[in-house]
Write a structure and sequence with these properties.
By secondary structure, the chain is an alpha+beta fold. The protein has 10 helices and 8 strands. Strand 1 (150-153) and strand 2 (156-163) form a beta hairpin.
Length: 302
Amino acid sequence: MFSFRSRILAIASKAVFVLVLLYLLSIRYLLFEYLQVYYSVTIITIKFVSFIIAVDILNDLLKYFYRRRIGLASHQHDNITLGLNNMYLLLVLGSSVVTITAYFGLNPKELFTSLSIVAAAIAIISRDYIMDIVSGMFIAFSRDVVIDDYIKIGEHTGKIVHIGINKTAMLNDDDDLIYLPNHKFIMHEITNYSRRAVRRTIMDYEVKLEHVRSLEKWENHIRHILLRYPAYVDPDSLKLKVLHIYKEHLHLKIQYDLSVADRKIEKEIRKEVLRGMVGFIATPEISIPHITGSTPPPQMPI
């Protein structure tokens, strides 16, 4: 309730301030004898501040009613709220450029018309940045990719943590924060793993032929590890495939399905599978009971 009242008070204060500025604009001719040489600059500043605050109020109101409709907390963001913030920043940037040119007594329309060649050169130079801004608006208001989605784009795989005006931040499996230009999301194919009912984990690895005496034992050993996590993974979804056979080693692929889209759980299971495979290579003589279906394994520490 306190947060709601504080937001309403802040919006009301801004609205009152805008009304005061508009009142000053309505009597601006009466202020001329007091301002004299500063009259023009003052009026331009009042117009700029009034516009910025009015847009800020509109932005706050739109986000408030949107959050209330979908049940989003005041500190949380999704594509729509980020898109509204990006539009607000663009309006602030555009009005700032117009205001600066007006301070020098220039008409923005006439200025850009007279400098058409320079404007064309600037447009060519800033083409990629403009593409990023346009792409960022498209991403923000679309539902193809949203915050917290786990995606693959190009060579990068990770979770979307922020959609900015020109870049999108992705947190990969190594907890590295990667900033990708927004136009990549338009130009490249995207695999959105979060839109599936299950999440598939795939691991490729190579092993020397001398360590592969029986693929069935390998698969049985991996299934034994997966059965430690019955609430998160289906052991029957496990597949062990041979991708390539080389002179001295095999290129194998492991894949299994998770029933939850939990990055922490996925990393933990992946780590245990990799450690189990290394242990099996180091001591291939260990005895693993044959497992079929979902028979519970013997009690093992996790």
